[in-house]
Write a structure and sequence with these properties.
This protein has twelve helices and eight strands. By secondary structure, it is α/β, with parallel strands linked by helices. It has a single domain, classed as TIM Barrel (Alpha-Beta Barrel). Strands 2-1-8-7-6-5-4-3 form an eight-stranded parallel sheet. It starts with 8 loop residues before the first helix and ends in a 5-residue tail after the last helix.
């Protein structure tokens, strides 16, 4: 349990996977220009659009992942607060991952942690570990919350840094930067009891397998399935284990599955299809 009596991120994740029989995370990236005609280009309808998606899919998902930039760009932070409150009412058992990718140190990091966990009441937040352990420690003070660290991201440009070999390493033959992040997260960074996870893109299934090897029990948040073209089956086979959850995110393929007034029903059908595909690829327990 977290310090406030709310279930920990790890407990919520295990319960949601079991209850929904799902590995699917629906990313909430609202773009008013892609809303149904009656709401098209109306940023005041962000809450209504996202709440309809939540209502239509919450029994099918492992998690929801609102991306903060899509709200902040439209001055819709208060709508995000309302949305999380709505999720707490209709699906209190589904963890909320705030996709913020924050990375800073000291008192600034503590403010970002308060934003994620106190203002938005998220169960977990995505973070950049580039500045090292002391940029993560302020988040760790919020017991029971998940810290999901960028490791091997789904974009092609991630290789410019993440796939570079470290010249100085205590690993024979050296290691790639993303491997070092995975090793730290599974090792010394977790010793405080922090609930860490890693972001690994579905567009790199071999790297998913390598990260799972280095971090055998950490949850992996895996974007890139759906609109980005990641192979869902290969992703699950590489990363899922009975004692090691994966959170496979799909955003646009679910959100914009339909463009008419039945958009929520279309989103549900897309979520059902993706959930079934992911479940079929799971390794035998």
């Amino acid at each position: 349990m977290s310090s406030a009596g709310h279930p920990s991120f790890a407990a919520l994740l295990r319960g949601a996977e079991r209850r929904a029989q799902s590995l699917l995370c629906v990313g909430l990236d609202p773009e008013p220009a892609r809303f149904p005609e009656r709401w098209r280009d109306d940023a005041a309808r962000i809450f209504d659009f996202c709440a309809a998606i939540v209502d239509a899919t919450h029994d099918l998902v492992l998690a929801f992942k609102p991306q903060i930039a899509y709200f902040a760009a439209h001055r819709a932070e208060e709508q995000l607060e309302r949305l999380v409150a709505h999720m707490r009412r209709v699906a209190p058992e589904v963890p909320v991952i705030l996709d913020a990718k924050r990375g800073d140190i000291g008192s600034t990091a503590e403010m970002y942690a308060r934003e994620a966990f106190l203002r938005y009441r998220a169960d977990a937040v995505t973070l950049s570990p580039f500045m090292g352990y002391d940029s993560l420690e302020p988040y760790m003070r919020h017991r029971g919350k998940g810290l999901i660290l960028l490791c091997r991201t789904s974009n092609a440009g991630g290789s410019e840094l993440q796939a570079q070999r470290l010249a100085s390493s205590d690993v024979p033959g050296g290691e790639l930067l993303y491997e070092r992040i995975a090793r730290l997260a599974a090792g010394e960074w977790s010793r405080s009891g922090a609930e860490l996870g890693l972001v690994v893109g579905a567009t790199f299934p071999r790297e998913v397998a390598r990260v799972r090897e280095l971090a055998p029990t950490l949850p992996l948040l895996i974007p890139g399935v759906g609109a980005q073209g990641g192979d869902a089956g290969a992703t699950v086979r590489a990363g899922w284990r009975a004692d090691a959850p994966i959170i496979v995110n799909s955003s646009r393929a679910v959100l914009y599955a339909g463009a008419g007034d039945d958009f929520a029903a279309a989103a549900r059908r897309a979520a059902e299809a993706t959930r079934a595909l992911l479940q079929a690829a799971r390794l035998p327990e």
